[in-house]
Amino acid sequence: MKKIISASLVVLAATTGFLLNNQPSQAHGRYNYGYGGYPYYRRYPYPIEPARYCFPTTQWQVNEDPGYHPHAYSDGYRQGQSSAKKGDKYKPRTAGGEFARGFDDGYYGKEFAGQKNIVQNVIKPYTTTECSLY
């Protein structure tokens, strides 16, 4: 019995010594020193990839109303006259506004009245993201 106890104490002491005194092993270092001695991170075995950065940019959206541009009435009047001369059947214009009023006047041979309303183009900003590599 004394031999079993002494043998188990020796085994326990040896095992404890091996577990506490060992250094951890490492496959490869995290940093590889590149140009000029500065460390850079490298995912082994792939080459270094450039960094990607994104930044916000403002774009401008222009909303043009085809029925109210500065020459809408005169364009509609001219197209209405040419359509009537060709003998085309009347159909209402989808642009609406001053263009449609000019087309009706030109088609039915009314006197040129001129444009009454001009609606300015609406310019709206919107933000988008652009990305680049460096």
Roughly what percent helix? 25-40%
Regions with little confidence, pLDDT below 50 for 5+ residues: none
Q: Residue-averaged pLDDT, rounded?
A: 79
Main sheet properties: 2 strands, antiparallel
| DSSP, total strands | 4
Structural class of the helix and strand makeup?
alpha+beta
Measured between the Cα atoms of the first and last residue, the distance is 74 Å
Strands ordered across the widest β-sheet: 1-2
Q: What characteristic shape results from the CA principal axes?
A: rod-shaped
Q: How many individual helices?
A: 3
The radius of gyration is 42 Å
* Beta content: 15-25%
**Order of H and E elements:** HEEEHHE
Question: Keywords for this structure?
Answer:
134 residues, two-stranded antiparallel ribbon, rod-shaped
